[in-house]
Each structure stands twice: as C-alpha cells, then as structure tokens.
Amino acid sequence: MYFAGFETQPTFVLANIVSLLNNRSMKLIKPLIFTLFISSAMGSAISFAADLPTAEKNGAESSDSSASNNSEANSADRMVPDFSQQQQEDLALALAHNIETEVIWLDLNGQKQLALLQQAATATPAGTVMIFSDQSTSADWPAIVHPLRTQLTKFGWNTLSITLPDLPPPPIPKRTLPTLQDRKQIQTPTDAANSQTTETAQSTDQKNVKTEVSNPDSASAAEKMKEYQKSISELGQDAAKQLADAKGDLKIILGVGESATWAMHYFMQDETQANRFLVLLDPTPVMNENAPNLLQMITEIKAPVIDLWFSNNSYKQERATLRKRAASRSGNKEYRQFRLNQQSNDPRREPLWLTRQLRGILKTYILTAEQPEAPAAQAIELTPGQ
Fold first, then answer.
1. pLDDT tens, position by position, 291-338
2. Radius of gyration of the chain (CA)
3. Please, are residues 133 and 259 in contact by the beta-carbon 8 Å criterion?
4. Which of 140, 163, 159 lies closest to 85, judged by CA?
C-alpha cells in the first residue's frame, strides 16, 4: 500500500523515496537497501577500472595508427614537383611531331636532360653548333635559342641545343643576432662587468663552435659546385657523342648568357682539339663565389674566342670592356669581340637579325680562316708548238 502512493511524475520521485524510507515499516529493510546500493556501486567501479586499461590501449593504438597515417599523408603532401623536368617533358611532347627536330635525352647521373638536334639543310654542312641555353631557360627558348637552332641550318650548320641543369641552391646565410635574447632585459654596467669574465672564458669555445658550424656549410657549397662543374663536362661529352655521325668537321661551342661561363668551362677541359671554336653570346658572369670566373678563364685560354654582345645597358657595356681588357693582358691574339646591331628597318626580317650576323662572323673568321690557301701560280715557259 505504500507503493500506491508514489507519484508517477518525475518531479516527485525523490520526495516519495524519502517518505518511504521514513516509514516505520521500512526501518527493518533500510540496511538491506543500503547494502544493495553499495555493492552495486562497487561493482560498477570495478568493471570501469577493469575496462580502463583496455580502453587506453585501444585509444593509444588508434592514435598511433592515425599519427602514422597523418605522417604518411604529410610526407606525400610535402613532395615538391620538379618544374624543370616537367618543362622539359612538356617541350619534348610538343616537338614530338616536328619532322625537322630530333628529340634527344642526355643522361646526367640518372637524370634526363633535353637536347634538340636539327640537321643542316645542305648536302655538305660546314659543321655543328652546340648551343648551351641560358640558365633557367630551355633548349628551345624563343628569344635566342629557337631562332639560332632553326635558322642556322639554312646556312649549312647542324645545331644541337642543350638544356642545362639547375644550379645548386645557395647556402642558407648564418644568423648574426641572438634569437633567444630577451629584448625587455636591459644590461646594466654591473651586469656587464660581472659577465665579462664569463664571456672571455666562453669566447674560445664560441669561436670553435662557429668554425665547426660554418665550415661544413661552405665546404658543402664548394663541393656541390665542383660536382655541378663535373656534371656540365659529362653533359657536354654526352652531347658530343650524339654528333659523332653528323656531317661536317667544325664544332662550334656557343654559350648564351650565364651559360657562356659553362660553355667556356667545358671547352677548356680540352681546348687543344682541332676544329673546335668557342663563341660567347652576350655572356653574363655566374653570381656564385664557387663558380668558375669568366674573366679568369678569358685570361688563361689560348684558343680562338669570339665574344658577341648586344645589350644596350651600361652594365653589359662595362662587362664587355672588362673581358676585352682581360684578353688583351693575356696576349691572346685569337680573341675577337663584336657588338651586334639589333636594329632592323624591316619587321619581317627582325627574327633573322641575330642569325644573319652570327652566320657572317662564322663565315669570315672561321670558315674562311680554315680554308687552305691556294698555291701560288708558277710561271711556265712554253716552247714553240706547245
């Protein structure tokens, strides 16, 4: 009869339980109710404690798996595409259907470098012009390389243009200021006097640490540049092998812009070869302290060099003057420098301005110089009847 008085609404459940426990008839069963309540609570606690290690283990495994998956995803996301290689592949695909151009892939330490070969349009070509394209350009750069490699074939020259690999990245400069210094802290004269002894004691160690830190970077940068120079020589040798069956005896090594330095470096590996000539087209020094010095190589070279420049800015004029003076001091009488004229009255002939002037210089100072002199005519005494 006591349970009949229970309210069915949730608001009065707690009040009904209190009134039930205060009833005299329920005093005897109060200990039993508390015992059941405590045992039930202890059982729940024991089961929770038993399940906790399993839950932690499962959570740790899931976190480890998710972390590994995230690391794999991040490593995949951090892959930087090779834009230079992609550019070469796109260019090779665009020229795949060109009948006049032969696409050649040169092997450079497992990396492919694009080269474009085009045969001369004559039966007896004079030779081959190997073009070192400028840095950060391609073997068919429209400004200079494409006109030369396609138009020189009309004047009896085979052409082979090469894409050079990217220069090694420059070393990261060292920090000159402390990064963990508290800017709010002001050093007083007393603090400076107290720290002078400590700084004197640590100066030697700091110098040693700086030397150990800086030397590996500079050494690694120099080693990378040496490896790059070696790769340029190997690339030129591989390109020369592709010209083994090409007609014509003369070989012109032509470097454009910064690549004029690398063309000269490759040429000087064996400048005693016969029928090889070097042409520098608007040369620009490589801004790297570990790279070969263009002026120094001009001073050392003894082979014929044709230096062509056509930029109108003062910097190019100053560099051209320095190159000419360096050649004069070396006593190389085979060094010739010309300033090309970019002006053209007829817009239809403007794309040919560089090719025509280069063709004329090659004809005057290389082709004509290579032709043997005709034997002098000897007087013959004729007798009567002859």
1. 999 999 999 999 999 999 987 789 999 999 999 999 999 999 999 999
2. 41
3. yes
4. 163
